[in-house]
Amino acid sequence: MNVAVLASGGGTNLQALLDAAAAGALGPARIVAVGSNVPGCEALARARRAGVATFALDHRNFAERAGFDQALVAELRGHDTELIVLAGFMRLLTPVFLDAFPQQVINIHPSLLPAFPGTNGPGQAFAHGVRYAGCTVHFVDAGTDSGPIIAQAVVPVLAGDDVESLRQRILREEHRLLPVVVRAVVEARVVVEGRRVRVTGATAETTHLRSLD
Predict the structure, then answer these.
(1) Cβ-proximal residues to 118 (8 Å cutoff; 6+ apart), any chain
(2) Catalytic positions
């Protein structure tokens, strides 16, 4: 399956996917392109170093979101994309994009959704005084971080934490969780049943997904 990754910043989750692909840990997934709305971001540099095709579409050059999304769809179709992974892509996608790739777009978010959607999930969690935080991989719909949840990973909030230490602990789990979920999707082991998602064929590698079976 041809996978494209969209990112807007440093691309550490992209790097986790690139490393997994190089190690053969993504199964039949092939990362064919990395795109960004921020020309010159580190995510694009990471992709180029890995020999992956890149493209940049500066959203500021488009009068409206729909026009940007149309251009994004055209770029991704040019790479025969079958799955899109949002890995720190800081743009809300419109139905123009989502209708072109139904149930083919997943996102990694740094909170235990449905708690703390939107920006700065770790900061929201810390401000609310929660005892546990984490990350979520979910299908993308027209809402804000509101699509069906595929998998989550939980981290404790420690007594000595600040927002940044919590963010880094969550990020380490993102790097672990995202490649496992991408592999499950491309191996057709992720089944959407309305708002619920089942991940089938759990192995030792995906034990943390078993609760969703």
Answers:
(1) 124, 144, 145
(2) 109
45: enclosing H helix or E strand: helix 42-49
Tell me the C-alpha distance between 138 and 43, whole Å. Answer: 21
Q: Per-residue pLDDT tens for 34-50? A: 999 999 999 999 999 99
Domain 1-102: give its CATH superfamily.
Formyl transferase, N-terminal domain (3.40.50.170)
**Integer angstrom CA distances of residue 5 from 124, 125, 180, 202, 203:** 26, 27, 15, 25, 25
> Which residue in 69, 173, 167 sits closest to 119, CA to CA?
167
DSSP 143-209: SSS-SPEEEEEEEE--TT--HHHHHHHHHHHHHHHHHHHHHHHHTT-EEEETTEEEE-S--GGGGGG
Q: Could you tell me which residues are beta bridge partners of residue 105?
A: 84
| pTM over 0.90, yes/no | yes
Fold match between domain 1-102 and domain 107-213? yes
> Where do the structural domains in the chain lie, given as residue ranges?
1-102, 107-213
Calpha distance 129→1 (Å, rounded): 41
Cα–Cα dist 150/140, whole Å = 11
107-213 CATH fold: Rossmann fold (3.40.50)
- Beta-bridged to residue 124, according to DSSP, are none
Could you tell me which residue, 62 or 213, shows the higher pLDDT?
62
Per the omega criterion (within 30 degrees of 0), is the bond before 114 cis? yes
Instruction: Classify residue 88 by its DSSP letter.
Output: S
